[in-house]
Write a structure and sequence with these properties.
The chain has 115 residues and is mainly α. It contains five helices and two strands; from the N terminus they run ααβααβα. The radius of gyration is 17 Å and the shape is elongated.
Length: 115
């Protein structure tokens, strides 16, 4: 029922949330030797989610290791500038998706009230 009410935005919000968790984990482990930075391919995860995969399975299937621009001596592949830019971009997209959902809920609320 939520797919028909909210369209692609409900699935997109789940994928963006999972990506936010992955990116924040990368930032938190920036000083951990041997840590491999990961990211979620949003398009692939959304396609899997819309294809019927659960939120976690869709994100896991679309998770990729990030290839660093400059290798670290300790094997850590987190590059803070890259992670911060990806986090900020995802946060803006997450906020936009919430805005679409809020608009849809407000429209439904007005329809129920008969306005």
């Amino acid at each position: 029922m939520s797919n028909s009410l909210f369209g692609v935005h409900g699935a997109a919000l789940q994928v963006r949330s999972a990506r936010m968790n992955v990116l924040s984990s990368n930032i938190a482990n920036a000083a951990t030797p041997g840590y491999k930075a990961r990211d979620i391919d949003f398009a692939a995860a959304l396609e899997a989610r819309l294809g019927g995969a659960s939120g976690g399975r869709a994100a896991d299937a679309a998770t990729r290791f990030r290839v660093p621009l400059m290798a670290s001596l300790d094997g850590n592949t987190v590059e803070m500038a890259t992670e911060q830019a990806a986090f900020a971009e995802n946060a803006v997209a997450y906020s936009a998706t919430l805005g679409f959902l809020k608009g849809r809920v407000e429209t439904l609320t007005r329809a129920i009230r008969g306005e």
